[in-house]
Amino acid sequence: MRISTAGMNNQMIGQALRVQTSYTEALQRQSSGLKSASLSGLDGNAGAAAGLTADIARSEKLSGIADAAASELEIAYSAVDSITDQVNGMLTDIAAAISGSADATTLSTLQSSASDAFTDVVALLNTQYADTYVFSGGATATQPVDASLYDAADPTAYYQGSDSLRSVMLDGGASIAFGVTADADAFSDTLEALNLLVSTSPLDTATMQQAYDLLSGAVSDLGTMMERLSGQTDKLDAVVDAQTDFQLYAGEMLDSLTTVDVATASAEASQREVLLEASFATLSSLKSVSVLDYL
């Protein structure tokens, strides 16, 4: 009978190496909290994990766009609110001038106030959020109002922006248009009224009444505009909330496919360590075995 320990040694070495590899992988799972360092190590779950990762990335991009648009609308809303304050102030001044004794000093003061208001409204319509002009529609890099181009015969000649609003594209081809352009009637009527007050000389009651009527209509339109901007903001906030909920849900699903429980991973690593130590102990004992012991 032929007696050899070589085969037994090779078998035990191979087993020890496999245990060592298993132990190393267990340590990696314990330290990283991941089932595998790559998708290929997830076996049948690799495709699902890749799909969820892509879905989460798209959702984060959409929520980021919607959030930025909502922030821009808040800036626009604030600007329209400030314009409304300007209009209300001018209505008060015009009413006082019409009902009182409109002497030269009163009329001069009114015209000066109208000139300042015109400048302020133009500045507000040229409001920027980051590098975006919020009242330029799709032409976000273009300053919407050029006061030097104002023409009483063409009340919107000053507008340099786009005719179309911007929109946030949603899944399924739907979209949410948002914003308002600086050539809206509420703005053009305001500028027309202020220009009437500034450019008419001498300023008479008929002109003041005409300006008052324009501003009265504008203040009502500005209120409607603010309601519309608020509604658009609510829609965009709802998109952000929905996408955030999806990201949390999809993230939990992805975690279930890719991560391990730390306590379980630690216990597994300890078990692999015990097996590895046992394998090394067996190999060590085999080294002391000699064929001569069996002769």
Automatic annotation (TrEMBL):
Signal peptide: none annotated. This is Flagellar hook-associated protein FlgL. Transmembrane segments: none annotated. InterPro entries: Flagellin, Flagellin_C. It comes from the Bacteria. Keywords: Bacterial flagellum, Cell projection, Cilium, Flagellum. Residues 209-295 form the Flagellin C-terminal domain. It is found in: Bacterial flagellum. Belongs to the bacterial flagellin family. The lineage of its organism: Bacteria, Pseudomonadati, Pseudomonadota, Alphaproteobacteria, environmental samples. The gene is flgL.
